[in-house]
Amino acid sequence: MLKMFLLIYILAGPTLAGIMMTFALAARMSNSTMLLLTAIGAVVAIPIAWIVAKMIIEKTGWGKPKSA
């Protein structure tokens, strides 16, 4: 589970952080607000990555031994 979570987070973390930074830039927010929103995006990606990883593992059976 941890490997799949990390694989998903590697993609989701920077994506959500980048979305939040783009929003802050477009709204002409201060640097401290921009950093805060970027950090919030990275933190919000944690439960999202966990849920997506769990769903992928349930649907595919990833990591389970194959029967002969």
List keywords for this structure.
68 residues, mainly alpha, single chain
Secondary-structure blueprint:
Blueprint: H1 2-26, H2 31-60
Helix pairs in contact: 1-2
Structural shape:
rod-shaped
Structural class comes to mainly alpha
Arithmetic mean pLDDT:
93
Question: Which oligomeric state applies?
Answer: single chain
Secondary-structure element order, N to C: HH
| Rg, alpha carbons | 16 Å
Total strands: 0
**Helix fraction bin:** over 70%
Give start-end ranges of low-pLDDT stretches: none
Count of domain modules: 1
N- to C-terminal distance: 23 Å
Residue fraction in strands: under 5%
How many helices? The count is 2
* Main beta-sheet strand count, sense and barrel state: none
Explain this structure.
- The chain is an all-alpha fold and about 70 residues long.
- The protein contains 2 helices and no strands.
- Helix 1 (about 1-25) runs antiparallel to helix 2.
- The two termini are about 25 Å apart.
What's this entry about, in short?
With 68 residues, the protein is mainly alpha-helical.
